[in-house]
């Protein structure tokens, strides 16, 4: 019995991922969390180390990561620091990856879990690779309505209520090289004027069923440790928001609307990209 108990404890133990960055860590954190949305997030513990500009600090981090049997995801530009991190990781037998590389593939290997979305081959250092890096950086900078003046430079703009999957969808398409911005909408929030001045054919409105949105918001509240009965997930309030959003999209008939209820990210992304390329309505 003792052996069985020990085995169950071992199986349920969380995998640990270290996020290491030279700056504030905003970019690497967003990319890591968006990538982890493809997996069972409750199985993972994130440890963050930012403003890392010292070789001794890197050595201590990697030593600790080895003790945790962790995966190290880093974003370090300075060659000496980057080389030291990779060298120390190799010496201690742990995996270290650059988040701009194909993070989802590496997570799949580390977690021994097939991703919900099957990524393509790993990036090569060519024009396509740098195009994807540029797209990822663009989508991170223009997430959740930030820097609205940059909407004119986006390939695709996603508009929708809170928890309709705008950020993970934008990140997924950015990994395919599309510059995607996303803008939240709400009955009590005024949309940025530039949204109505850009080329309207590149705007996609995300609509969702009340039931699906309530479940997503309840899960979000639970993750934050808040009561599921909060107004944010109240079915009546959610119904009113969805009704308002539907009317809002109708007032902007040049926007193309896509239903994301209970649909996989890759499926929605494929519909959006196909509609954008062909100029048709999403499936």
Mean pLDDT: 85
Structural class: alpha/beta
Distinct helical segment count: 10
| Estimated helix fraction | 40-55%
Number of domains: 2
**What is the CATH domain class of the largest domain?**
Alpha Beta
Strand content: 5-15%
> The biggest beta sheet, please?
4 strands, parallel
CATH fold description of the largest domain? Rossmann fold
Shape call: globular
How many strands?
Answer: 8
| Spatial strand order of the main sheet | 2-1-3-4
Task: Give the uncertain stretches in residue-range form.
Answer: 1-11, 117-125
Radius of gyration over alpha carbons? 21 Å
Just name the CATH architecture of the largest domain: 3-Layer(aba) Sandwich
Order of helices and strands: HEHEHEHEHHEHEEHHEH
Q: What is the CA-CA span between the terminal residues?
A: 54 Å
Structure description:
With 283 residues, this protein is of the alpha/beta class. 45% of the residues lie in helices and 14% in strands. It folds into 2 domains: 10-111, Response regulator (Rossmann fold, 3-Layer(aba) Sandwich); 127-278, Rossmann fold. The protein has 10 helices and 8 strands. It has a 4-stranded parallel β-sheet with strand order 2-1-3-4, with helices on both faces. A 4-stranded parallel β-sheet has the order 6-5-7-8, sandwiched between helices. The longest helix is centred in the last third of the chain and has 16 residues, at 235-250. The N and C termini lie far apart (54 Å). Mean pLDDT is 85; it is low at 1-11 and 117-125.
